[in-house]
Amino acid sequence: MGMFAGMLVAIFAFLTMIAAYALGGYVAGRMRTPVAGAGADEVAARDGVHGLTVWALSTIIGAVLAFGAVSGAVKTAADAAGATVQAGGQVVGGALQGAGQLAGGVVSGVGQMAGGAVQGAGEAAGGGGGLSDMLPPEARENPLDYITDRLLRPQESAPQPYSDADLRQQIAGIVGSVLRNGELSDDDRAYLARAVAARTNLSEAEANARIDDAVGEVTALRDAAQQRLDEAKAAATQARDEAQQRIDQAKQEAIAAAEKARRAAVWGACLLAVSSLIAGAAAFAAAIRGGRDRDAGTVWSGLLHGPRG
C-alpha cells in the first residue's frame, strides 16, 4: 500500500511538472514580440529558446529552493541523530563505567579491609549495597572491631590489668591480614594465642579455640566478599556484552538505513534528471506552439482554437 501510494505521488508530481513547464513555455512563446522579416525556422527557434529560458530559470530557482529545504531537513535530522547517538553512547558508557567501578570497587575493597575498611569496600561496590549487607547486624558497622571484641572478651572473673588499645590495634591488623589473604601465619597465631591468653586468663587451648572461631568468621566474610565479587564481575561482563551487542546492532541498522537512503537518492536523482529533460522538451514545444498561435492571432483554450474577438 505504501509503495503504491508513493508511485501515485511520483506520477502526479511528474505530470504536474510537465504541465507547469509546458504552460510556462506556451506563455513565453505567445507573449514574445515577433521579429519582422524573420523566417519560419528563425521564429520557431526564437520561440523555443524563450520556452527553454523559462525552463532554465524555473529549474534554477526550484533547485535553489529545494537545496535550502533539503539542507535544512538534513541538518535537523543529523543534529537529532547525533544527539540520539551521543545520548545512547553516554548511557552505554555510563553503564559500562558503572559496571567496571562495581567490579573494581569490590576488588579494591577486598584488598583494603584492614582497620574497619569493609564498609568502604561496600561503598566502592555501588554505594547503597555491598559487603556490609552480607554481615550480621551486630558486625555490620565494623566487623574487625566486632571480631576483635570476640577475641578479647574476658571471662566474668578475669581481671583486666592493663589497657588493651595497643593490643586491639595489633590484633585488628592481624585479622585484616587474614581477611585479605585468607590465611593466618604461624607467627600470628602464636602471638594471638599469647595475647588472648594473657588478656582473658584463658588456657592456651581455649585461646586457640577462640582464635579458630574468629578465623572462621573472617574466612566466612572473605568467602562472602569473593562471592559478591564474582557476581559483580559476571554482572559487569553481561552488561558490557549486552551493551556491545546493542551497539553492533545499531551500527548494522544505521548502515542498512544509509544504504537504503543512498539507493533512493540515486534513483530519485536519475528520475528527477529525466523528468527535467522531458519538461524542457515540453517547454520548448509549447513555446513554439504559443508562437504559432500568436502569429495566427488565435488563443489556445485547452485543445481547441478559436479566433480572437
How do the helices and strands line up, and which of them pair or pack?
Elements: H1 2-31, H2 40-110, H3 118-124, H4 143-151, H5 165-181, H6 186-200, H7 204-296, E1 298-301, E2 304-307
Antiparallel strand pairs: 1-2
Helix pairs in contact: 1-2, 1-7, 2-3, 2-7, 4-5, 4-7, 5-7, 6-7
Organism: Rhodovulum sulfidophilum (Rhodobacter sulfidophilus)
Coiled coil: 215-260
Protein name: ATP synthase F0 subunit B
Defining key terms:
mainly alpha; 309 residues; 2 strands; 3% strand; single chain
Task: Describe this protein's structure.
- With 309 residues, the chain is mainly α.
- The protein folds into two domains: 2-101 and 265-307, no CATH class; 111-247, no CATH class.
- The chain has seven helices and two strands.
- The chain has helices spanning 2-31, 40-110, 118-124, 143-151, 165-181, 186-200, 204-296, and strands at residues 298-301, 304-307.
- It has a two-stranded antiparallel sheet with strand order 1-2.
- Helix 5 crosses helix 7 and helix 6 (186-200) packs across helix 7.
- The protein starts with a helix and ends with a strand.
Give a nutshell description of this structure:
The chain contains seven helices and two strands, in the order αααααααββ.
Cα-atom Rg, whole angstroms? 45 Å
Shape: rod-shaped
Q: Tell me the strand percentage band.
A: under 5%
State the separation between the terminal residues, measured CA to CA.
51 Å
Number of domains: 2
Helix-strand makeup class: mainly alpha
Instruction: Give the SSE string.
Output: HHHHHHHEE
- Count the E strands: 2
Pick out the low-confidence regions: 106-132
Write out the strand line-up for the largest beta sheet, numbering strands in chain order: 1-2
Number of DSSP helical runs = 7
Report helical residue fraction. over 70%
The biggest sheet amounts to: 2 strands, antiparallel
Mean pLDDT: 74
